[in-house]
Design goal:
The chain contains 14 helices and 20 strands. The chain is an alpha/beta fold. Bound molecules: adenosine-5'-diphosphate (ADP).
Length: 484
Protein backbone atom coordinates (compact mmCIF):
# COMPACT_ATOMS: atom_id res chain seq x y z
CA UNK A 1 0.00 0.00 0.00
CA UNK A 2 2.84 2.41 0.74
CA UNK A 3 4.28 2.10 -2.79
CA UNK A 4 1.36 4.23 -3.98
CA UNK A 5 2.25 7.39 -2.08
CA UNK A 6 2.15 10.50 -4.25
CA UNK A 7 5.09 11.84 -2.25
CA UNK A 8 7.26 8.87 -1.19
CA UNK A 9 9.55 11.20 0.75
CA UNK A 10 6.85 11.39 3.44
CA UNK A 11 7.74 7.86 4.47
CA UNK A 12 10.27 8.59 7.21
CA UNK A 13 11.65 5.83 9.40
CA UNK A 14 14.27 7.69 11.45
CA UNK A 15 13.65 9.61 14.64
CA UNK A 16 13.88 13.41 14.71
CA UNK A 17 16.19 15.05 17.25
CA UNK A 18 17.14 18.71 17.10
CA UNK A 19 16.28 18.93 13.40
CA UNK A 20 18.33 15.85 12.46
CA UNK A 21 16.93 12.52 11.32
CA UNK A 22 18.57 9.89 13.52
CA UNK A 23 18.82 6.18 12.62
CA UNK A 24 19.34 4.98 16.21
CA UNK A 25 21.48 2.06 17.33
CA UNK A 26 18.80 -0.52 16.48
CA UNK A 27 15.52 -0.69 14.62
CA UNK A 28 12.05 -2.16 15.20
CA UNK A 29 9.42 -3.43 12.76
CA UNK A 30 6.13 -1.77 11.96
CA UNK A 31 3.49 -4.19 10.67
CA UNK A 32 0.28 -3.88 8.67
CA UNK A 33 -2.44 -5.23 11.01
CA UNK A 34 -4.61 -6.24 8.03
CA UNK A 35 -1.99 -8.52 6.49
CA UNK A 36 0.71 -9.01 9.09
CA UNK A 37 3.27 -7.82 6.54
CA UNK A 38 6.18 -5.65 7.56
CA UNK A 39 5.82 -2.07 6.38
CA UNK A 40 9.09 -0.55 7.60
CA UNK A 41 11.71 -0.65 10.27
CA UNK A 42 11.99 2.38 12.46
CA UNK A 43 14.70 3.87 14.70
CA UNK A 44 14.56 2.33 18.16
CA UNK A 45 15.82 5.07 20.46
CA UNK A 46 17.16 4.51 23.95
CA UNK A 47 17.16 6.30 27.29
CA UNK A 48 20.41 8.06 26.28
CA UNK A 49 18.79 9.27 23.05
CA UNK A 50 15.90 10.59 25.13
CA UNK A 51 18.36 12.64 27.22
CA UNK A 52 19.80 14.09 24.02
CA UNK A 53 16.32 14.92 22.74
CA UNK A 54 15.38 16.71 25.94
CA UNK A 55 18.58 18.74 25.66
CA UNK A 56 17.78 19.62 22.03
CA UNK A 57 14.25 20.72 22.94
CA UNK A 58 15.60 22.79 25.82
CA UNK A 59 18.21 24.44 23.59
CA UNK A 60 15.52 25.39 21.06
CA UNK A 61 13.17 26.82 23.67
CA UNK A 62 14.49 30.38 24.19
CA UNK A 63 14.30 31.29 20.51
CA UNK A 64 10.90 29.69 20.07
CA UNK A 65 9.32 31.40 23.08
CA UNK A 66 10.81 34.71 21.94
CA UNK A 67 8.96 34.61 18.67
CA UNK A 68 5.80 36.62 18.61
CA UNK A 69 2.55 34.71 18.83
CA UNK A 70 1.87 35.68 15.25
CA UNK A 71 5.20 34.28 14.06
CA UNK A 72 4.42 30.94 15.70
CA UNK A 73 0.89 31.08 14.37
CA UNK A 74 2.12 31.48 10.79
CA UNK A 75 4.31 28.36 11.03
CA UNK A 76 1.48 26.34 12.58
CA UNK A 77 -0.91 27.51 9.89
CA UNK A 78 1.56 26.43 7.23
CA UNK A 79 1.82 23.04 8.93
CA UNK A 80 -1.97 22.73 8.84
CA UNK A 81 -2.00 23.57 5.13
CA UNK A 82 0.64 20.92 4.41
CA UNK A 83 -1.17 18.28 6.46
CA UNK A 84 -4.32 18.92 4.43
CA UNK A 85 -2.47 19.11 1.11
CA UNK A 86 -1.03 15.66 1.86
CA UNK A 87 -4.25 14.23 3.32
CA UNK A 88 -4.37 11.24 0.96
CA UNK A 89 -0.78 10.17 1.53
CA UNK A 90 -1.05 10.59 5.29
CA UNK A 91 -4.28 8.59 5.33
CA UNK A 92 -2.64 5.88 3.24
CA UNK A 93 0.20 5.60 5.74
CA UNK A 94 -2.31 5.56 8.59
CA UNK A 95 -4.53 2.82 7.14
CA UNK A 96 -1.43 0.75 6.37
CA UNK A 97 -0.08 0.84 9.92
CA UNK A 98 -3.28 1.26 11.95
CA UNK A 99 -5.91 -0.58 9.91
CA UNK A 100 -8.83 1.87 10.00
CA UNK A 101 -10.75 2.15 6.70
CA UNK A 102 -9.17 4.64 4.31
CA UNK A 103 -12.11 7.13 4.35
CA UNK A 104 -11.99 7.07 8.15
CA UNK A 105 -8.23 7.67 8.03
CA UNK A 106 -8.79 10.68 5.77
CA UNK A 107 -11.30 11.90 8.33
CA UNK A 108 -8.70 11.59 11.06
CA UNK A 109 -6.16 13.56 9.05
CA UNK A 110 -8.68 16.39 8.75
CA UNK A 111 -9.57 16.09 12.45
CA UNK A 112 -5.92 15.95 13.49
CA UNK A 113 -5.01 18.89 11.27
CA UNK A 114 -7.93 20.92 12.66
CA UNK A 115 -6.15 21.15 16.04
CA UNK A 116 -3.15 22.71 14.31
CA UNK A 117 -5.40 25.22 12.56
CA UNK A 118 -7.33 26.00 15.77
CA UNK A 119 -4.26 26.51 17.95
CA UNK A 120 -2.58 28.56 15.21
CA UNK A 121 -5.52 30.90 15.72
CA UNK A 122 -5.56 30.61 19.51
CA UNK A 123 -1.83 31.41 19.70
CA UNK A 124 -2.81 35.06 19.26
CA UNK A 125 -5.35 34.96 22.10
CA UNK A 126 -3.23 33.98 25.08
CA UNK A 127 -4.37 37.09 26.91
CA UNK A 128 -3.39 38.22 30.37
CA UNK A 129 -5.36 40.35 32.85
CA UNK A 130 -5.09 43.61 34.67
CA UNK A 131 -6.59 43.58 38.17
CA UNK A 132 -7.88 46.41 40.35
CA UNK A 133 -5.14 47.55 42.72
CA UNK A 134 -5.48 47.15 46.50
CA UNK A 135 -3.27 50.23 46.94
CA UNK A 136 -3.22 53.21 44.56
CA UNK A 137 0.54 53.14 44.57
CA UNK A 138 0.53 49.78 42.83
CA UNK A 139 -0.63 48.15 39.58
CA UNK A 140 -1.43 44.46 39.31
CA UNK A 141 -1.36 42.19 36.32
CA UNK A 142 -1.34 38.61 35.20
CA UNK A 143 0.69 37.32 32.29
CA UNK A 144 0.76 33.88 30.75
CA UNK A 145 4.05 32.30 29.75
CA UNK A 146 4.92 28.99 28.06
CA UNK A 147 5.47 26.24 30.58
CA UNK A 148 8.69 24.95 28.99
CA UNK A 149 9.76 21.70 27.36
CA UNK A 150 6.73 19.44 27.00
CA UNK A 151 6.52 15.71 26.29
CA UNK A 152 3.65 13.94 24.55
CA UNK A 153 3.25 10.17 24.80
CA UNK A 154 0.58 9.02 22.40
CA UNK A 155 -1.42 5.89 21.49
CA UNK A 156 -1.99 3.99 18.24
CA UNK A 157 -5.75 4.44 17.84
CA UNK A 158 -5.50 8.01 16.50
CA UNK A 159 -1.94 8.17 15.18
CA UNK A 160 -2.18 11.83 14.13
CA UNK A 161 -4.94 13.47 16.16
CA UNK A 162 -3.64 12.41 19.58
CA UNK A 163 -0.35 14.10 18.68
CA UNK A 164 -1.69 17.35 17.27
CA UNK A 165 -4.22 17.81 20.08
CA UNK A 166 -1.30 18.01 22.52
CA UNK A 167 1.50 19.42 20.43
CA UNK A 168 -0.35 22.21 18.64
CA UNK A 169 -1.34 24.08 21.84
CA UNK A 170 2.13 23.53 23.30
CA UNK A 171 3.82 24.97 20.22
CA UNK A 172 1.30 27.80 19.98
CA UNK A 173 1.98 28.77 23.58
CA UNK A 174 5.74 28.91 22.93
CA UNK A 175 6.80 25.53 24.33
CA UNK A 176 9.08 23.07 22.57
CA UNK A 177 8.00 19.44 22.42
CA UNK A 178 9.20 15.90 22.27
CA UNK A 179 6.79 13.28 21.05
CA UNK A 180 6.96 9.57 21.82
CA UNK A 181 4.49 8.12 19.31
CA UNK A 182 3.00 4.65 19.81
CA UNK A 183 5.37 1.92 18.67
CA UNK A 184 2.59 0.38 16.56
CA UNK A 185 1.95 3.55 14.53
CA UNK A 186 5.08 5.74 14.26
CA UNK A 187 4.95 6.28 10.49
CA UNK A 188 2.02 8.72 10.48
CA UNK A 189 3.74 10.65 13.26
CA UNK A 190 7.04 10.83 11.38
CA UNK A 191 5.32 11.97 8.18
CA UNK A 192 3.61 14.73 10.17
CA UNK A 193 6.99 15.73 11.62
CA UNK A 194 8.48 15.94 8.11
CA UNK A 195 5.64 18.30 7.16
CA UNK A 196 6.30 20.40 10.27
CA UNK A 197 9.89 20.86 9.09
CA UNK A 198 8.67 21.82 5.63
CA UNK A 199 6.37 24.35 7.29
CA UNK A 200 9.38 26.05 8.82
CA UNK A 201 9.38 24.61 12.33
CA UNK A 202 12.87 25.46 13.65
CA UNK A 203 15.27 22.64 14.57
CA UNK A 204 14.64 21.24 18.04
CA UNK A 205 11.17 22.73 18.45
CA UNK A 206 9.40 19.51 17.50
CA UNK A 207 11.25 16.27 18.19
CA UNK A 208 10.14 12.71 17.60
CA UNK A 209 11.44 9.84 19.76
CA UNK A 210 10.49 6.53 18.18
CA UNK A 211 11.02 3.41 20.30
CA UNK A 212 9.69 -0.13 20.64
CA UNK A 213 7.67 -1.28 23.64
CA UNK A 214 10.61 -1.92 25.97
CA UNK A 215 12.52 1.18 25.01
CA UNK A 216 9.33 3.25 25.36
CA UNK A 217 9.26 2.29 29.03
CA UNK A 218 12.91 3.34 29.44
CA UNK A 219 12.33 6.59 27.54
CA UNK A 220 9.26 7.24 29.69
CA UNK A 221 11.36 6.98 32.83
CA UNK A 222 13.86 9.52 31.51
CA UNK A 223 11.10 11.92 30.55
CA UNK A 224 9.39 11.65 33.94
CA UNK A 225 12.66 12.03 35.87
CA UNK A 226 13.82 15.08 33.91
CA UNK A 227 13.80 18.49 35.60
CA UNK A 228 13.82 20.11 32.18
CA UNK A 229 10.60 18.49 30.99
CA UNK A 230 7.91 20.57 32.69
CA UNK A 231 4.81 18.89 31.41
CA UNK A 232 3.74 15.45 30.19
CA UNK A 233 0.65 14.88 28.17
CA UNK A 234 -0.37 11.26 27.83
CA UNK A 235 -3.23 9.49 26.12
CA UNK A 236 -3.51 5.76 26.69
CA UNK A 237 -4.47 3.23 29.28
CA UNK A 238 -5.31 4.20 32.87
CA UNK A 239 -2.70 1.70 34.01
CA UNK A 240 0.14 3.45 32.16
CA UNK A 241 -1.26 6.84 33.18
CA UNK A 242 -0.90 5.83 36.83
CA UNK A 243 2.70 4.70 36.22
CA UNK A 244 3.58 8.02 34.57
CA UNK A 245 1.97 9.97 37.43
CA UNK A 246 3.91 7.99 40.03
CA UNK A 247 7.16 8.39 38.11
CA UNK A 248 6.53 12.13 37.81
CA UNK A 249 5.91 12.75 41.51
CA UNK A 250 9.59 13.37 42.36
CA UNK A 251 9.79 16.24 39.85
CA UNK A 252 6.23 17.49 40.59
CA UNK A 253 5.55 17.58 36.89
CA UNK A 254 2.37 19.03 35.48
CA UNK A 255 0.33 16.45 33.62
CA UNK A 256 -2.51 16.15 31.17
CA UNK A 257 -3.95 12.65 31.07
CA UNK A 258 -6.55 11.21 28.77
CA UNK A 259 -7.08 7.67 29.96
CA UNK A 260 -9.57 4.86 29.63
CA UNK A 261 -13.32 5.20 29.34
CA UNK A 262 -16.29 2.91 29.82
CA UNK A 263 -18.89 4.92 27.95
CA UNK A 264 -22.56 4.24 28.63
CA UNK A 265 -25.05 4.73 25.79
CA UNK A 266 -28.59 5.05 27.17
CA UNK A 267 -31.76 4.88 25.08
CA UNK A 268 -34.90 6.04 26.88
CA UNK A 269 -38.47 5.11 25.94
CA UNK A 270 -39.05 8.60 24.53
CA UNK A 271 -36.04 8.41 22.17
CA UNK A 272 -36.16 8.48 18.41
CA UNK A 273 -35.13 4.83 18.06
CA UNK A 274 -33.86 5.06 14.47
CA UNK A 275 -31.67 7.99 15.39
CA UNK A 276 -30.41 6.08 18.45
CA UNK A 277 -29.51 3.10 16.25
CA UNK A 278 -27.63 5.43 13.86
CA UNK A 279 -25.75 6.98 16.78
CA UNK A 280 -25.00 3.58 18.27
CA UNK A 281 -23.42 2.40 15.00
CA UNK A 282 -21.19 5.46 14.82
CA UNK A 283 -20.25 5.45 18.46
CA UNK A 284 -19.54 1.72 18.71
CA UNK A 285 -18.03 0.59 15.43
CA UNK A 286 -15.87 3.53 14.39
CA UNK A 287 -12.22 2.46 14.40
CA UNK A 288 -13.48 -1.09 15.11
CA UNK A 289 -14.51 0.04 18.58
CA UNK A 290 -11.00 1.11 19.43
CA UNK A 291 -11.57 4.64 20.69
CA UNK A 292 -11.71 5.78 24.29
CA UNK A 293 -15.10 7.42 23.63
CA UNK A 294 -16.68 4.39 21.94
CA UNK A 295 -19.89 3.28 23.62
CA UNK A 296 -18.98 0.29 25.79
CA UNK A 297 -22.35 -0.46 27.44
CA UNK A 298 -25.79 0.01 25.90
CA UNK A 299 -28.65 0.57 28.36
CA UNK A 300 -32.08 0.47 26.69
CA UNK A 301 -35.38 1.15 28.44
CA UNK A 302 -37.92 -1.70 28.45
CA UNK A 303 -40.48 0.05 26.21
CA UNK A 304 -38.13 0.33 23.22
CA UNK A 305 -35.72 -2.48 24.04
CA UNK A 306 -36.98 -5.09 21.54
CA UNK A 307 -37.28 -2.54 18.75
CA UNK A 308 -33.82 -1.07 19.35
CA UNK A 309 -32.10 -4.43 19.65
CA UNK A 310 -33.67 -5.79 16.43
CA UNK A 311 -32.79 -2.72 14.37
CA UNK A 312 -29.31 -2.42 15.83
CA UNK A 313 -28.41 -6.08 15.26
CA UNK A 314 -29.67 -5.92 11.67
CA UNK A 315 -27.42 -2.96 10.90
CA UNK A 316 -24.42 -4.54 12.61
CA UNK A 317 -24.82 -7.74 10.58
CA UNK A 318 -24.64 -5.64 7.40
CA UNK A 319 -21.25 -4.08 8.25
CA UNK A 320 -18.49 -5.07 5.84
CA UNK A 321 -15.28 -6.20 7.52
CA UNK A 322 -11.97 -6.26 5.66
CA UNK A 323 -8.79 -4.53 4.65
CA UNK A 324 -9.22 -0.80 5.15
CA UNK A 325 -8.07 -0.15 1.59
CA UNK A 326 -10.97 -2.16 0.08
CA UNK A 327 -14.10 -0.33 -1.06
CA UNK A 328 -17.08 -0.31 1.26
CA UNK A 329 -15.21 -1.69 4.26
CA UNK A 330 -16.68 -0.29 7.48
CA UNK A 331 -14.49 -2.16 9.93
CA UNK A 332 -10.81 -2.99 9.57
CA UNK A 333 -8.58 -5.27 11.62
CA UNK A 334 -7.93 -4.85 15.33
CA UNK A 335 -4.53 -3.47 16.16
CA UNK A 336 -2.93 -6.62 17.58
CA UNK A 337 -3.66 -10.12 18.82
CA UNK A 338 -4.05 -8.96 22.41
CA UNK A 339 -6.99 -6.81 21.28
CA UNK A 340 -8.65 -9.84 19.65
CA UNK A 341 -8.10 -11.81 22.84
CA UNK A 342 -9.80 -9.17 24.98
CA UNK A 343 -12.88 -8.97 22.75
CA UNK A 344 -13.08 -12.78 22.59
CA UNK A 345 -12.85 -12.96 26.37
CA UNK A 346 -15.59 -10.36 26.90
CA UNK A 347 -17.93 -12.01 24.39
CA UNK A 348 -17.36 -15.51 25.80
CA UNK A 349 -17.92 -14.24 29.35
CA UNK A 350 -21.16 -12.48 28.35
CA UNK A 351 -22.49 -15.59 26.61
CA UNK A 352 -21.53 -17.81 29.54
CA UNK A 353 -23.47 -15.51 31.89
CA UNK A 354 -26.72 -15.63 29.92
CA UNK A 355 -26.15 -13.13 27.09
CA UNK A 356 -28.02 -13.70 23.83
CA UNK A 357 -25.90 -13.49 20.68
CA UNK A 358 -27.66 -11.39 18.03
CA UNK A 359 -24.83 -10.57 15.62
CA UNK A 360 -21.25 -11.68 15.00
CA UNK A 361 -19.47 -13.20 17.96
CA UNK A 362 -16.47 -14.75 16.26
CA UNK A 363 -12.87 -14.11 15.46
CA UNK A 364 -12.17 -14.18 11.74
CA UNK A 365 -8.89 -14.95 10.00
CA UNK A 366 -5.92 -12.78 10.95
CA UNK A 367 -6.62 -9.84 13.23
CA UNK A 368 -10.30 -9.43 12.33
CA UNK A 369 -13.27 -9.84 14.66
CA UNK A 370 -16.93 -9.82 13.63
CA UNK A 371 -18.97 -6.80 14.74
CA UNK A 372 -20.91 -8.28 17.63
CA UNK A 373 -24.13 -7.59 19.54
CA UNK A 374 -25.14 -9.47 22.70
CA UNK A 375 -28.53 -8.79 24.34
CA UNK A 376 -29.64 -9.59 27.92
CA UNK A 377 -26.38 -8.21 29.28
CA UNK A 378 -26.06 -8.05 33.08
CA UNK A 379 -23.98 -6.13 35.61
CA UNK A 380 -21.89 -9.16 36.57
CA UNK A 381 -20.36 -9.44 33.10
CA UNK A 382 -16.80 -8.28 32.38
CA UNK A 383 -18.12 -5.95 29.68
CA UNK A 384 -20.07 -4.03 32.33
CA UNK A 385 -16.87 -3.18 34.21
CA UNK A 386 -13.99 -3.15 31.74
CA UNK A 387 -13.49 -1.22 28.54
CA UNK A 388 -13.64 -3.77 25.71
CA UNK A 389 -11.93 -1.52 23.13
CA UNK A 390 -13.28 -3.61 20.30
CA UNK A 391 -16.38 -4.22 18.13
CA UNK A 392 -18.62 -5.71 20.82
CA UNK A 393 -21.91 -4.13 21.96
CA UNK A 394 -23.57 -5.58 25.08
CA UNK A 395 -27.17 -4.39 25.53
CA UNK A 396 -28.67 -4.12 29.03
CA UNK A 397 -32.41 -3.65 29.71
CA UNK A 398 -33.54 -1.14 32.34
CA UNK A 399 -36.82 0.20 33.70
CA UNK A 400 -36.39 3.56 35.48
CA UNK A 401 -34.37 6.68 34.72
CA UNK A 402 -32.58 6.46 38.07
CA UNK A 403 -31.62 2.86 37.42
CA UNK A 404 -29.96 3.88 34.15
CA UNK A 405 -28.10 6.80 35.75
CA UNK A 406 -26.85 4.61 38.61
CA UNK A 407 -25.66 1.89 36.24
CA UNK A 408 -24.00 4.44 33.96
CA UNK A 409 -22.12 6.05 36.85
CA UNK A 410 -21.11 2.76 38.45
CA UNK A 411 -17.52 2.84 37.15
CA UNK A 412 -14.23 4.46 38.06
CA UNK A 413 -14.16 5.99 34.57
CA UNK A 414 -15.81 9.21 33.41
CA UNK A 415 -14.86 10.15 29.87
CA UNK A 416 -17.72 10.11 27.33
CA UNK A 417 -21.37 9.17 27.78
CA UNK A 418 -24.38 9.24 25.47
CA UNK A 419 -28.13 9.21 25.83
CA UNK A 420 -31.16 9.51 23.61
CA UNK A 421 -34.33 11.24 24.75
CA UNK A 422 -36.76 13.79 23.30
CA UNK A 423 -37.93 15.00 26.71
CA UNK A 424 -36.42 18.35 27.62
CA UNK A 425 -36.70 17.83 31.38
CA UNK A 426 -35.00 14.46 31.14
CA UNK A 427 -32.28 15.91 28.92
CA UNK A 428 -31.35 18.38 31.67
CA UNK A 429 -31.75 15.88 34.52
CA UNK A 430 -29.72 13.11 32.97
CA UNK A 431 -27.19 15.44 31.34
CA UNK A 432 -26.41 16.91 34.77
CA UNK A 433 -26.47 13.57 36.62
CA UNK A 434 -23.98 11.69 34.44
CA UNK A 435 -20.50 11.79 36.01
CA UNK A 436 -18.66 12.23 32.76
CA UNK A 437 -16.52 14.91 31.13
CA UNK A 438 -18.56 14.71 27.94
CA UNK A 439 -22.21 13.92 27.32
CA UNK A 440 -23.61 13.32 23.83
CA UNK A 441 -27.38 13.86 23.77
CA UNK A 442 -29.06 12.45 20.67
CA UNK A 443 -25.64 12.17 18.99
CA UNK A 444 -23.15 9.34 18.68
CA UNK A 445 -20.09 11.45 17.90
CA UNK A 446 -19.18 14.66 19.69
CA UNK A 447 -15.49 15.55 19.30
CA UNK A 448 -14.22 18.47 17.28
CA UNK A 449 -11.32 20.88 17.70
CA UNK A 450 -13.10 23.77 19.42
CA UNK A 451 -14.78 21.83 22.26
CA UNK A 452 -13.15 20.63 25.50
CA UNK A 453 -12.31 16.93 25.34
CA UNK A 454 -11.48 15.11 28.56
CA UNK A 455 -12.67 13.05 31.46
CA UNK A 456 -13.45 13.08 35.18
CA UNK A 457 -12.67 10.44 37.84
CA UNK A 458 -9.97 8.03 36.68
CA UNK A 459 -10.40 8.95 33.02
CA UNK A 460 -7.87 11.72 33.37
CA UNK A 461 -6.78 15.28 34.04
CA UNK A 462 -7.17 18.38 31.92
CA UNK A 463 -9.01 19.18 28.73
CA UNK A 464 -7.74 19.10 25.15
CA UNK A 465 -9.02 21.22 22.29
CA UNK A 466 -11.07 24.42 22.68
CA UNK A 467 -9.62 27.56 24.28
CA UNK A 468 -9.25 25.50 27.49
CA UNK A 469 -6.76 23.29 25.65
CA UNK A 470 -4.12 25.99 25.91
CA UNK A 471 -4.34 26.23 29.71
CA UNK A 472 -2.09 23.26 30.44
CA UNK A 473 0.76 24.73 28.38
CA UNK A 474 0.98 28.14 30.02
CA UNK A 475 1.96 29.22 33.51
CA UNK A 476 0.13 32.09 35.13
CA UNK A 477 2.41 34.77 36.54
CA UNK A 478 1.26 37.61 38.82
CA UNK A 479 3.16 40.88 38.52
CA UNK A 480 2.72 43.38 41.33
CA UNK A 481 4.21 46.77 40.41
CA UNK A 482 4.79 49.32 43.20
CA UNK A 483 6.03 52.94 43.46
CA UNK A 484 3.66 54.15 40.77
P1 LIG B 1 -2.85 1.45 24.61
O1 LIG B 1 -3.74 0.76 25.58
O2 LIG B 1 -3.44 2.53 23.82
O3 LIG B 1 -1.90 0.55 23.85
P2 LIG B 1 -0.75 2.21 26.34
O4 LIG B 1 -1.12 2.98 27.51
O5 LIG B 1 -0.20 0.84 26.48
O6 LIG B 1 -2.02 2.31 25.51
O7 LIG B 1 0.28 2.98 25.40
C1 LIG B 1 0.11 4.31 24.98
C2 LIG B 1 1.46 4.92 24.81
O8 LIG B 1 2.17 4.81 26.03
C3 LIG B 1 2.36 4.27 23.76
O9 LIG B 1 3.08 5.30 23.12
C4 LIG B 1 3.27 3.40 24.59
O10 LIG B 1 4.53 3.19 23.98
C5 LIG B 1 3.44 4.25 25.82
N1 LIG B 1 3.81 3.51 27.03
C6 LIG B 1 3.36 2.32 27.45
N2 LIG B 1 3.90 1.99 28.64
C7 LIG B 1 4.71 3.02 29.00
C8 LIG B 1 5.53 3.32 30.12
N3 LIG B 1 5.64 2.48 31.16
N4 LIG B 1 6.22 4.49 30.12
C9 LIG B 1 6.10 5.35 29.09
N5 LIG B 1 5.34 5.14 28.02
C10 LIG B 1 4.65 3.99 27.96
Amino acid sequence: PLSQLKDPSLLKTDALIGGQWVAGGSRFDVLDPATGHKLADVANLTAADAEATIAAANAAWPAWRSKTAKERSIILRKWFDLLMANQDDLARIMTAEQGKPFPEAKGEIAYGASFVEWFAEEAKRVNGETLPQFDNNRRLMVIKQPIGVCAAITPWNFPLAMITRKVAPALAAGCTVLIKPAELTPLTALAAAELAIRAGMPAGVLNMITADGDNSIAVGKVICASDVVRHISFTGSTEVGRILMAQSAPTVKKMSLELGGNAPFIVFDDADVDSAVEGAMLSKYRNAGQTCVCANRFYVQAGVYDQFVAKFAAKVKALKVGNGFDDGVAQGPLIEDAAIDKVSRHVADALAKGGELLAGGHKLQGQFFEPTVVANATADMLCAKEETFGPFAPVFKFTTEQEAIDAANNTEFGLASYFYSRDIGRIYRVGEALEYGMVGINVGILATEHVPFGGVKQSGLGREGSHHGMDDYVEIKYLCIGDI
